[in-house]
Amino acid sequence: MFCVGTGVGAIAVSWKAVLGLSVDGETARPGTEARAPQAENKTQATPIKIESRIIAIKYIHEHKPVLSFMLNLRTMTYQGLLHQYGHLLDLPPHIRTVSLLEGNTPLIKADSLSRQLGGGFELFIKYEGLNPTGSFKDRGMTAAVSEALGRNATTVICASTGNTAASAAAYAARAGMKSIVLIPQGKVAAGKLAGAIAYGAQVIQIDGSFDDALTMVIQITNKHPICLVNSINPYRIEGQKTASFEICDVLGSAPDWLCLPVGNAGNITSYWAGFKQYNEVKSTSLPQVLGVQAAGAAPLVLGHPVDNPETVATAIRIGKPARGEQALQAAEESNGRIIAVTDEQILDMQKMLAKLEGIWVEPASATGLAGLAHEIENGKLKVKGKRVVAICTGHGMKDPDIITKDMQKPLIVPPRLEALEEVILS
Ligand code: F0G
């Protein structure tokens, strides 16, 4: 968010900084930040990106007053998904925006990983772990909680394998609402549980699976005035469509293939709806969709619910996906498919992505890429000359234990240079 220090002096000095002038008259270089010097009233102005100078120069030429420039700059600054794409979402008029400036996540070109998988195609990672609570859930949660707040709901509830819980708790906190989250006992990664607690949710463990917890939250919201914010809530789907819009806006069109993990199947449903809508409005074409489940929790591949789903990718440890039908429809309509990969393939891909590209994601988030690798390896997916986008749904820091539990303890050396040299040079 663009901010200036308070007081006329601060604005004047910030204005100078916008032009790239420091107090001693030196011009700041492009790509650096112009840091506003101390204002007369000793108020420190916030650093301002030097690119803003271009806008500033335009305004000087047009003789517009500084205040008008400042106000316009504010509206040019990113203000979250509902501000950015709300006009394309099917949301009721009563919504009151609750935002943490979610979305606008980077689409990172992954050339090393593409080469590792055989090369000859463009691979992009949509890094959804960079959302405010560390997962893609924030896209849908801004919409769902904004709708709930708009009709004066006071409490939200969800069942969750962890990420929905953290996201619901954060947006409820921001809205001044209470949040209740039901999680499968002992099966939620540390970073997610910690998030839900930190944001002030009432966390309840169910001695059962995610599917049991989902059944319970549906039952309780049918009986009591509590707002359900799982992805069966249609506004979650609306919010999550924005990721497809962003991909098309960055690439200029939809990719040839989209691969992503599938758990409760809300996300694949949203992506497909988003791509279809954008194609209708902007002729951005459609991707083929590769949905990927974990082998121990693959009801959509097996064709029947899984009573005791089990996988290291706890985020997608789901046996009865609420939007399973729509996921199958997305795969079919797009001329894609839903496949399963083993836990070993998932963990191998998680490590490969971190080591080759510097992108650390939680295990479930590597599942889409693991599926892509599997299909390429088995000659089932011809990617030569194609453009592929893989959705990495959650940050690696959500589940640190999966990395640290088997790792060798880092060496301990005495605090002497020779000791360090011996270790790193020998
Ligand atoms: N990746 C991550 C990191 C997730 O947390 C989830 C779902 C998925 C993929 C699958 O998305 O359910 O829309 O098919 N997590 C839910 C939760 C179930 O409770 O956080 P989906």
Rough outline: globular
Main sheet: strand order: 3-4-12-9-10-11
Ions, cofactors and other ligands present here are: ligand F0G
- Total strand count, please? 12
Number of helical elements:
18
Main sheet summary:
6 strands, mixed
Radius of gyration: 24 Å
Q: Structural class, from helix and strand content?
A: alpha/beta
What distance lies between the first and last C-alpha atoms, to the nearest angstrom? 49 Å
Mean pLDDT: 87
Question: How much helical structure, as a percent, in the residues?
Answer: 40-55%
What is the H-and-E element order? HEEHHHEHEHEHEHEHEHHEHEHHEHHEHH
Strand content: 5-15%
The stretches of 5 or more residues where confidence is low (pLDDT under 50) are 1-48, 50-57
Structural description of this entry:
The chain is built from 18 helices and twelve strands. Helix 7 (163-175) packs parallel to helix 8 (190-198). The protein has 426 residues and is of the alpha/beta class. It binds ligand F0G. Ligand F0G is lined by residues 135, 137, 160-164, 231, 261-268, 315-316, 362, 364-365, 393-394.
Secondary structure topology:
Elements: H1 8-18, E1 33-34, E2 48-49, H2 52-61, H3 66-76, H4 81-85, E3 107-109, H5 111-116, E4 122-127, H6 137-150, E5 155-159, H7 163-175, E6 178-184, H8 190-198, E7 202-206, H9 210-223, E8 227-228, H10 234-240, H11 242-251, E9 257-261, H12 266-282, E10 288-294, H13 299-302, H14 324-333, E11 337-341, H15 343-357, H16 367-377, E12 387-392, H17 401-404, H18 417-425
Parallel strand pairs: 4-12, 5-6, 5-8, 6-7, 9-10, 9-12, 10-11
Antiparallel strand pairs: 1-2, 3-4
The structure holds ligand F0G.
